[in-house]
Amino acid sequence: MAIRKLFVANRGEIAVRVVKAAQALGIRAVQAYSEADADMLAVRLAEESVCVGPPQAAKSYLDKEGLVRAAKEAGCDAVHPGYGFLAENADFAAMVEAAGLVFVGPSAATIRKMGDKAAARAAAIAAGVPVVPGSDGRVASVDAAVEAAETVGYPVMIKAAAGGGGRGIRVAGDEAELRKLAPQAQQEAQAAFGDGGLYLERAIVEARHIEVQILGDGTRAVHCYERECSLQRRRQKVWEEAPAACLTTDRREELCASAVALAESVGYRGAGTLEYLYDERTGEFFFIEMNTRIQVEHPVSEMITGIDLVAWMIRIAGGEALSMAQTDIAIDGHAIEVRINAEDPANGFMPFPGVVGALDVPEGPGLRFDGMIYEGYQIPPFYDSLLGKLIVHAGDRAAAIEAMAAALDRFSVEGLKTTIPLHKALARDEAVRAGAFHTQFLEPWLEAHPLTAQQ
Amino acid sequence: MAEVKSPIPGTFYRRPSPEEPPFKSEGDSVAVGDVVGLVEVMKSFIEVKSEVAGTIKSFTVENEQPVTAGAVVAELDD
């Protein structure tokens, strides 16, 4: 059933992206908005819009019943959840389908399965995808720990089997260190939890975050290669690239093929991302989790493959099968995306929900801005700080960094503090230019390179 | 009469978390720098501190209600 009228159950830049994708496919867009979002760009672009509640997300963008009711009343035949909010909520997907509407994404059962870490890990193992090696259950003695560590591989993290969170985790680099640390960990676990059982897991030191974009139609899946998103602050991605420059061609093919195998093994439908940790020293990659939705950084994959991921999500939801074979998808050049947030990087990234003043967004070949701002727009304080994403596409990584630096210099937004100065500093940084970073890189870098108000 | 104002727009909270008691109640004394509430802005929590000493006469914003920058959240008696 081809979709004729799409309800957009999200806000901000992704709502703009979805509205435009729907319109390009000849589909009418109905934009949901909270009382605080009546002026947002997606409302202005959509054919229709519906107020779904007060500013608090819990009473608007997270109100499952209210959203389904609004979609039905507007005469929509499908719902796009965007990212965040209800995008990975299996109950919402089930309610949309139960109301006779199409959920633009995988089935509720797939969302539930891949959203459960243990179930997702089991699905990965069954599909032959490497996961972070761990001891097979609890180890009860130091000798048992040493034996398990031989299989797991050093360095190992020693955790209390009965514990949770990061409490009391120790890292042993070799057997001697394990023999020294394991008894301490046992005693501590016994004291804290009344159970001295331990669990070992490989410690991936200075891991890179690499993720594979896939598209599935429920039967077949293809990948659109990988992204590297290691530059993170407080687990939030800051700067994203495609492809990952640290991978060899062979390793890339192996990684991406593993993602397709896992997606096909669960009959995946729609756009999805499989996240991996990559150990550059050993060349090993380990699946950690799957995101069953479109992601913020999807544009870099679109730029290097020429595939419109959001359009394909909607086409697949409307019943189309994938028309392309894997061999039709090739990498063209290199793309980088930076997240421009309304935050002051010179003041601890303090949120800055101001009014957008004079705005000058650079345009040209290889440049793209997916944003939610216009001059005079009052940014509401109730939601995340993402104003938009600046994306560049060039022949290779060095040229892409140069293009990003030049585009950032031309990007001007008055009236707000934004993270543009951070991105300018990153684009100039030698380590960033060399691609020499990992997930623990950015926070110490920020300590060592404080941004000042002048930048 | 002195006032405590929100430094930033967002959602005002009187408690550090739903399970804990309010930072301050009516009749409590307040010193300079005391935290009177939190404002959630763009998924961050910013402390609302008093710039003057006094006793809380009343709160002018309910818990979990939207506030604007500079909005009075509490009135103090000197």
UniProtKB/TrEMBL annotation, chain A:
Residues 2-447 form the Biotin carboxylation domain. Pfam families: Biotin_carb_C, Biotin_carb_N, CPSase_L_D2. SMART domains: Biotin_carb_C. It comes from the Bacteria. It catalyses: N(6)-biotinyl-L-lysyl-[protein] + hydrogencarbonate + ATP = N(6)-carboxybiotinyl-L-lysyl-[protein] + ADP + phosphate + H(+). Gene3D superfamilies: ATP-grasp fold, B domain (3.30.470.20). Residues 121-318 form the ATP-grasp domain. GO terms for molecular function: ATP binding; biotin carboxylase activity; metal ion binding. This protein is a component of the acetyl coenzyme A carboxylase complex; first, biotin carboxylase catalyzes the carboxylation of the carrier protein and then the transcarboxylase transfers the carboxyl group to form malonyl-CoA. This is biotin carboxylase. It comes from Marivibrio halodurans.
From TrEMBL, chain B:
Residues 1-77 form the Lipoyl-binding domain. Keywords: Biotin, Fatty acid biosynthesis, Fatty acid metabolism, Lipid biosynthesis, Lipid metabolism. Residues 1-27 are annotated as: Disordered. GO terms for cellular component: acetyl-CoA carboxylase complex. Gene3D superfamilies: 2.40.50.100. Pathway: Lipid metabolism; fatty acid biosynthesis. GO terms for molecular function: acetyl-CoA carboxylase activity. One of its GO terms (biological process) is fatty acid biosynthetic process. Residues 16-27 have a biased composition (Basic and acidic residues). InterPro entries: AcCoA_biotinCC, Biotin_lipoyl, Single_hybrid_motif. This protein is a component of the acetyl coenzyme A carboxylase complex; first, biotin carboxylase catalyzes the carboxylation of the carrier protein and then the transcarboxylase transfers the carboxyl group to form malonyl-CoA. This is Biotin carboxyl carrier protein of acetyl-CoA carboxylase. It comes from Marivibrio halodurans. The lineage of its organism: Bacteria, Pseudomonadati, Pseudomonadota, Alphaproteobacteria, Rhodospirillales.
